[in-house]
Amino acid sequence: MLLAGDEWARYFTSFTRSAFRLETLPVYTMPDEEEELRGFLAGELPPEGYHYGWLDTVATAAAEGRPVQRVRVLRRPLSDYIRYEFAYGYDYNVPAGEDIRIADITDHDPDLPCEDWWLFDEATVVRMLYRPDGTQIGRELVEDPDLDQYVKWRDQALAASVPYGEYPH
Asked: Rounded to two decimals, what is the model's pTM?
């Protein structure tokens, strides 16, 4: 079942215990980021007071004791997109309350899946679907997922990662 709009957004307000994201692609081609990415590549940094809606979602969840975690899998050298993602995303997400960790697999392979997904409350899995160029084409609710496997992958990703603030970039 594909998820979009309010139906997809509801997952971020209705989870009760935890939300976890595995993020694996070297680039995400998001139309609403194109202008910022061009500016970043030209040397621009986020403007004073920079803010976006995800920060409110994360801050609300954190204040309610509902952790949002993300493991960003990457290889060096960092892609331009990942450097942008750090400067325009993670540098703001972490202070808002998101627990972001970096799994640098340049020199080792922790045997993680090569796909992006969310795990909500260790009960619901949503696969993020992308074209090879990183363009998102959908979000799929996984029917009858092997939850033990997804929890194992989450735990492997967490064990293979360091907190964002400790990753040299």
From this structure: 0.95
